[in-house]
Amino acid sequence: MWSLWLEMDEETKQKVAKNAKITGIILMIIGVAGMLFPGIMSLATLFFVAWMLLLGGLMSGYFTWMSDKSDWMGWLKAFVLIMTALFMIFKPMPGVAAIGLLLTIYFLLDSFGNMMIAFAMKPAKGWWMWLLNGILSLLLAVIFLIGWPFSSMYLVGLFVGISLFFDGIVLVVLGNSLKKS
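RESULT FIELD:
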């Protein structure tokens, strides 16, 4: 992967470095805002997901219309996507709770996977890092479950904000490393 970055010509490398740093700084700012205002970030996340579902439903309906108007499964898919999106847009609190539940399931699966990797690696060096990661994911899932659905309003936004912040850091580091190479 890094060889791709290193094989770029200097001009392209400088453009990528500049854009990565700019994007990284923007993501870090949005991430900090999400951590400071998790309720707003939760709603922003919900509306982003809802609009993507709505667009997917409209595109699915268009595709069904253009390809096979008698395909009732295609129409059902479009209907479910559009109705889910509209429900999320007009009733955001249950939608945020649903996103919180999805994150809980993700953290539980991530915890299980990391712990299995840790025990498969044991006694190799660093196996405990996988175990620690699994325990932390389990802790996040438990935190979500304890207060669910009410904690979803701030936890979804907080975790999305943290994720965006660290994504931004990675891009800034990438931009700096490309400038130096």
